[in-house]
Amino acid sequence: MIFVTGGAGFIGANFVLEWLEQRDEPVLNLDKLTYAGNLHNLESLQGDARHIFVQGDIGDRALLERLLAEHRPRAIINFAAESHVDRTIHGPEDIIQTNVVGTFRLLEAVRQHWQRLAAQEQQAFRFLHVSTDEVYGTLAPDAPAFTETHNVEPNSPYSASKAASDHLVRAWHHTYGLPVLTTNCSNNYGPLHFPEKLIPLMIVNALAGKPLPIYGDGMQVRDWLYVRDHCRAIARVLDAGRLGEVYNIGGWNEKPNIDIAHTVCALLDELRPRADGQSYRQQITYVTDRPGHDRRYAIDAQKIERELGWKPAETFETGIRKTVQWYLDNPEWVAQVQSGSYRDWVAKQYGRVND
Length: 355
Ligand code: NAD
Ligand code: TYD
Hints:
The protein is α/β, with parallel strands linked by helices. It has a domain of about 240 residues: Rossmann fold, CATH 3.40.50.720. The chain contains 13 helices and 12 strands. A 7-stranded parallel beta sheet has the order 3-2-1-4-5-6-10, with helices on both faces. Helix 6 links the parallel strand 5 and strand 6. Helix 1 crosses helix 8. The structure holds nicotinamide-adenine-dinucleotide and thymidine-5'-diphosphate. The site of thymidine-5'-diphosphate has 12 residues, from helix 7 and strand 8.
């Protein structure tokens, strides 16, 4: 089996669903269920013996040791993190605890487990760390996109914590020989995205008749990748990536934030027009910029394409249409997330989440 951490969050849940749609290899899923973890995301796997969920913290060494000894996974895929830049600006303690200390404890537990394996199992073992393009810092408008050898120059508490975890992973490979892989991906979007992030926030606020807040001048550029493309890239790196290597993953799709807002509004105008016949664009509101806001991220994804043959299957046009349609088709998911009732739901449906 494989061992996924943070598998109740946005990308982790999409990864678990994609994995079990494609393969029969079971998944052990460890998630702390912070506000961002939502077991409702995995509802379709209820009763599926291939998915074992455990509520817990990647920083809990005793729990990790027990799970590793009991389930003997052949690979770890580490998604668990505090992931929201704005939230972590207001309170950076949790990101240090989870993204840095948590990754360190996970690495240590895995190292000790791995060192006790037989040589053949040791060789086949993998630790895949899921990271972000934000570790590279910001780019000038005409600078070439980030390659894997770009300087690591994080500017936010979030990106600094992810860069720290990437360094730990690298060091555990070089010092202890742990068979690691690291992926640095651009901004994801798609189903199950928590509506604190730009794209789902635009969709749910538009439908609720609320303002669509655009930070600063809205000309900050991100490279957007459909989440299932990211999941397939991770699976490909796990299967065939070279040990100790970093793979950048991106959608070749740079867009300023204001264009994203306009695209979402145009799709909603088409698919769910406002009752008053006006465009959702009317709801766009410029607000105070994020402190230390990185101006531009862009990923050069040639290495993963050249070495592993991965390319995104979705264009931005197909991916964003699917995404908007998913939010229109899943108002209960949105309502539960907005009211916080998904957390009560978890307690009710999964009374015994603690394995
Ligand atoms: P998310 O916030 O939606 O999910 C994170 C999950 O981790 C949640 O289910 C949460 O409950 C869990 N978690 C948090 N702290 C934990 C802990 N101490 N122990 C166990 N579980 C814990 O985040 P996401 O967007 O799904 O991102 C997943 C990973 O991908 C993160 O490592 C993030 O840095 C990385 N990443 C995200 C993006 C993006 O655009 N969202 C892009 C590149 C990389
Ligand atoms: P976000 O989805 O938070 O991802 P990240 O900060 O990891 O890139 O933000 C994406 C971009 O959208 C970023 O430049 C900040 C901007 N943004 C807004 O303009 N308004 C918003 O309400 C949010 C949440 C983000």
